[in-house]
């Protein structure tokens, strides 16, 4: 299945006659188990020249569709570039054609491993423009924190799981996804959906906690306290794991600052910058937790930072659960009826929908309530003109939505500064001069999610 | 949309209609003049057209073609308060104006001064904005002479501060100096803003498309670029694509 440039009629990636050097380069389409043919095809003269390998565009693991362009010399990578954009869906453009509330439904789909953080940064921006930041009910804020920290655990689990899979540690993957499934079950219980929740809304959250949710959450925390040590036992001192990760993908604090890296990559350099502490939102300043750092500035350090952060998240979840127990029956949506979504949801025979009490009220009792519902749902609320940027600490670093309003019912512009998009820039710096196999480890340590990168 | 409708002051674009409506006199707090900060320069950067929810007019039928000017928050007056003044003092000679809205400070900078400003922000010990979170483009078709905006968010680890720097350039000459030499982090962000808005960052090492395919025509996030989409038929009824549906804006 090896085709050299001289015999292939059509090659979508490089026409040999089009190459910069005037058609002297050969193009191979590599399908596996054909290195012998390529080595023979290269011949003695060409072997000394540079070889450019296209890794992807494909799905290297669950990180999404990423194309790597590597210039190699033997097994050593001399130059590395990323090709992105394969998952671009125009979410930001689409949001300009929906109401402010509907925007949540779009942005939750960007970084699909941390949907609540996408929603949160957007909603915080909208709430700042509406000037209702201080009016959000306490229960809504606590639920947001609870969901975000659960989400941080599930996202870090996927990062560790897929990172393990990429270096052949399949057990790490299976146990990682096993635990992540438990978090998704909690999400399903609380929001109705396992992913793409659109649960955090301007003014609060979509719905109150269902009965029994707190018990489930506490059960999950207890279980995770037994299961998290398994990861430590499997990996922390595992000589193969350490050999693959230690001193790989090195990036020091200076490099992180220059390239704008944040999150676990920044904290693995020993600098404990965390937006939850530095610029708290949603009442994070009232929770007791520590910022986790490591001092090796390599892939192993990032793994340990993530592992430790899951413990911290468990601490926050426990505190949030205690507060929620105290806040039973409290509102989860802002009192201002000009912003608050009029209906509460309930589960009917055909799935989730507006609660029957609400339907009865607007259809049978109050014409004004019907008008109000209709206006708010179809037309939406107006947001004063201006712009806001409220970043949050997502599992991958600083995630921020630059929200611009022209005073209308729709975002004039919503731009998301996605940490994966920014952090992927460091791929070249982390992997150039290393082995091909280490490129994979370096990328896994950045933990890019292409849905967020390409948006 | 209608660039010629750009209003220098905040009078509604359809004055003859506003005169017909007594509601303006009845509720002066809804008149556009009252929306800006007192004493601040009010500059309309566009207009909104929609069906319902008019402010300053009794006409909610939508048939009159409701038009409202888009007025962004006006220029802030000294003192700004807290560390805002510290940063503004340093930048004073280099900036056009300062806007403070909802606790966030925005420095509007002319593109000729952008590199100077960024260098100062990064290197001055009392500023130390080590972190550039990225570049976001905004297209204001009605802001004639400054249709394309590049918006930068800077962060300081040392001082735990955040500021916004905004550069407006005309659509006919969309050139902004690149910040890559000062903040390498801007690399992909500037490529994205070029890709989406057609803003050209002079001095960028390789300003190429990043999200759209290399041979894509146009810049999709611009307001004159259609969203696209086709009507969907369902049980005999047709649902138009989102950008052609009724707008209540």
TrEMBL record, chain A:
InterPro entries the UniProt entry points to: NADH_Q_OxRdtase_suD (IPR001135), NADH_UbQ_OxRdtase_49kDa_CS (IPR014029), NDH1_su_D/H (IPR022885), NiFe-Hase_large (IPR029014)
Report the GO terms under cellular component: plasma membrane
Note the topology in the membrane.
Peripheral membrane protein
Subcellular location(s) of the protein:
Cell membrane
EC number assigned by the record: 7.1.1.-
Keywords annotated in UniProt: Cell membrane, Membrane, NAD, Oxidoreductase, Quinone, Translocase, Transport
GO molecular function: any one? NAD binding
Catalytic EC class = translocase
Instruction: Write out the ranges of the annotated region (Disordered).
Output: 1-24
Catalytic activity entry: a quinone + NADH + 5 H(+)(in) = a quinol + NAD(+) + 4 H(+)(out)
- In this chain, composition skew of type Polar residues spans 1-10
Known Gene3D superfamilies for this protein? Answer: Cytochrome-c3 Hydrogenase, chain B
Q: Where is the NADH-quinone oxidoreductase subunit D domain?
A: 167-455
Highest rank taxon of the organism: Bacteria
* Main location as per UniProt: membrane
This molecule's function is given as: NDH-1 shuttles electrons from NADH, via FMN and iron-sulfur (Fe-S) centers, to quinones in the respiratory chain. The immediate electron acceptor for the enzyme in this species is believed to be a menaquinone. Couples the redox reaction to proton translocation (for every two electrons transferred, four hydrogen ions are translocated across the cytoplasmic membrane), and thus conserves the redox energy in a proton gradient.
Quaternary structure, from the entry: NDH-1 is composed of 14 different subunits. Subunits NuoB, C, D, E, F, and G constitute the peripheral sector of the complex.
Q: Which PANTHER family match?
A: NADH DEHYDROGENASE [UBIQUINONE] IRON-SULFUR PROTEIN 2, MITOCHONDRIAL (PTHR11993:SF10), NADH-UBIQUINONE OXIDOREDUCTASE 49 KDA SUBUNIT (PTHR11993)
The entry sums up its family as follows: Belongs to the complex I 49 kDa subunit family.
The UniProt entry, under NCBIfam families, shows: NuoD, PRK06075.1
Q: What is this protein called?
A: NADH-quinone oxidoreductase subunit D
Q: Which organism encodes this protein?
A: Nocardioides caeni
Q: Which gene encodes it?
A: nuoD
From TrEMBL, chain B:
- List the record's Gene Ontology CC terms alphabetically: plasma membrane
One Gene Ontology term of the molecular function aspect: quinone binding
Does this entry carry the keyword Oxidoreductase? yes
Q: What is the protein's major site of localization?
A: membrane
InterPro entries named among the record's database cross-references: NADH_DH_suC, NADH_quin_OxRdtase_su_C/D-like, NADH_UbQ_OxRdtase_30kDa_su
Show the segment(s) annotated as Disordered: 1-38, 227-249
Under Enzyme Commission nomenclature, its number is: 7.1.1.-
Reaction(s) the record says it catalyses: a quinone + NADH + 5 H(+)(in) = a quinol + NAD(+) + 4 H(+)(out)
Q: Where in the cell is it found?
A: Cell membrane
Membrane topology of this protein? Peripheral membrane protein
Q: Which UniProt keywords apply?
A: Cell membrane, Membrane, NAD, Oxidoreductase, Quinone, Translocase, Transport
Ranges for domain NADH:ubiquinone oxidoreductase 30kDa subunit come to 108-229
SUPFAM superfamilies referenced in this protein's UniProt entry, alphabetically: Nqo5-like (SSF143243)
Tell me which HAMAP family the record gives.
NDH1_NuoC (MF_01357)
Family, similarity comment: Belongs to the complex I 30 kDa subunit family.
Q: What does this protein do?
A: NDH-1 shuttles electrons from NADH, via FMN and iron-sulfur (Fe-S) centers, to quinones in the respiratory chain. The immediate electron acceptor for the enzyme in this species is believed to be a menaquinone. Couples the redox reaction to proton translocation (for every two electrons transferred, four hydrogen ions are translocated across the cytoplasmic membrane), and thus conserves the redox energy in a proton gradient.
The subunit field of the Swiss-Prot or TrEMBL record says: NDH-1 is composed of 14 different subunits. Subunits NuoB, C, D, E, F, and G constitute the peripheral sector of the complex.
Q: Which NCBIfam families match?
A: NuoC_fam, PRK07785.1
Name of the protein: NADH-quinone oxidoreductase subunit C
Annotated source species: Nocardioides caeni
């Amino acid at each position: 299945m090896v085709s050299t440039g001289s015999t292939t009629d059509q090659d979508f990636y490089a026409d040999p006659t089009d190459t910069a050097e005037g058609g002297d380069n050969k193009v191979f389409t590599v399908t596996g188990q054909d290195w012998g043919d390529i080595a023979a095809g290269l011949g003695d003269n060409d072997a000394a020249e540079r070889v450019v390998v296209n890794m992807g565009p494909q799905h290297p693991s669950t990180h999404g569709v990423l194309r790597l362009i590597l210039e190699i010399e033997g097994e050593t990578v001399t130059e590395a570039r990323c090709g992105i954009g394969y998952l671009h869906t125009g979410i930001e453009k689409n949001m300009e054609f929906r109401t402010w509330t509907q925007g949540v439904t779009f942005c939750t789909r960007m970084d699909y491993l941390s949907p609540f953080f996408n929603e949160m940064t957007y909603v915080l921006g909208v709430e700042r423009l509406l000037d209702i930041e201080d009016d959000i009910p306490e229960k809504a804020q606590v639920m947001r924190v609870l969901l975000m920290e659960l989400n941080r655990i599930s996202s870090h689990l996927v990062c560790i799981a897929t990172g393990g899979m990429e270096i052949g540690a399949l057990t790490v993957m299976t146990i990682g996804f096993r635990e992540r499934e438990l978090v998704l079950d909690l999400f399903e219980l609380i929001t109705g959906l396992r992913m793409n929740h659109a649960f955090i809304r301007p003014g609060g959250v979509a719905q109150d906690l269902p009965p029994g949710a707190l018990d489930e959450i506490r059960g999950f925390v207890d279980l995770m306290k037994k299961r998290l040590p398994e990861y430590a036992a499997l990996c922390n001192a595992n000589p193969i794991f350490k050999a693959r990760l230690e001193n790989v993908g090195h990036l020091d604090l200076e490099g992180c600052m220059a390239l704008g890296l944040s999150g676990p990559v920044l904290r693995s350099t020993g600098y404990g910058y965390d937006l939850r502490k530095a610029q708290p939102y949603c009442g994070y300043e009232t929770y007791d937790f520590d910022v986790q750092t490591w001092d090796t500035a390599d892939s192993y350090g990032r793994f340990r930072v993530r592992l430790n952060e899951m413990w911290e998240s468990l601490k926050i979840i426990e505190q949030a659960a205690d507060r929620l127990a105290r806040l039973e029956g409290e509102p989860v949506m802002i009192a201002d009826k000009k912003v608050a979504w009029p209906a509460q949801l309930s589960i009917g025979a055909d799935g989730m929908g507006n609660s029957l009490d609400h339907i009865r009220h607007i259809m049978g009792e109050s014409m004004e309530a019907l008008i109000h519902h209709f206006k708010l749902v179809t037309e939406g609320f107006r947001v004063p003109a201006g712009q806001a940027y409220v970043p949050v600490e997502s599992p991958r670093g600083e995630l921020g939505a630059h929200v611009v309003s022209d005073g209308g019912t729709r975002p004039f512009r919503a731009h998301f500064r996605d940490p994966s998009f920014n952090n992927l820039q460091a791929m070249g710096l982390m992997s150039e001069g290393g082995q091909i196999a280490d490129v994979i480890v370096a990328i896994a340590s950045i933990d890019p999610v292409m849905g967020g990168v390409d948006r | 949309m209608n660039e010629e409708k750009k209003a220098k002051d905040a009078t509604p674009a359809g004055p003859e209609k506003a005169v017909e409506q007594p509601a303006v006199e009845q509720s002066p707090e809804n008149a556009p003049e009252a929306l800006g900060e007192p004493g601040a320069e009010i500059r309309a950067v566009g207009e909104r057209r929609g069906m319902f929810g008019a402010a300053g007019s009794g006409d909610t039928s939508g048939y009159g073609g409701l038009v409202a000017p888009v007025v962004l928050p006006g220029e802030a007056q000294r003192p700004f308060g807290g560390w805002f003044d510290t940063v503004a003092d340093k930048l004073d000679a280099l900036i056009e104006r300062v806007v403070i809205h909802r606790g966030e400070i925005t420095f509007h900078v002319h593109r000729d001064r952008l590199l100077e400003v960024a260098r100062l922000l990064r290197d001055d010990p009392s500023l130390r904005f080590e972190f550039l979170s990225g570049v976001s483009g905004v297209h204001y078709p009605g802001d004639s002479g400054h249709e394309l905006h590049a918006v930068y968010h800077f962060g300081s680890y040392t001082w735990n501060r955040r500021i916004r720097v905004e550069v407006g350039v005309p659509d006919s000459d969309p050139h902004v100096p690149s910040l890559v030499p000062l903040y390498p982090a801007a690399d992909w962000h500037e490529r994205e803003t070029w890709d989406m808005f057609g803003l050209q960052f002079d001095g960028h090492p390789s300003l190429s498309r990043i999200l759209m395919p290399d041979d894509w025509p146009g810049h999709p996030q611009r307001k004159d670029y259609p969203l696209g989409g086709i009507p969907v038929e369902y049980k005999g009824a047709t649902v138009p694509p989102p950008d052609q549906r009724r707008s209540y804006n």
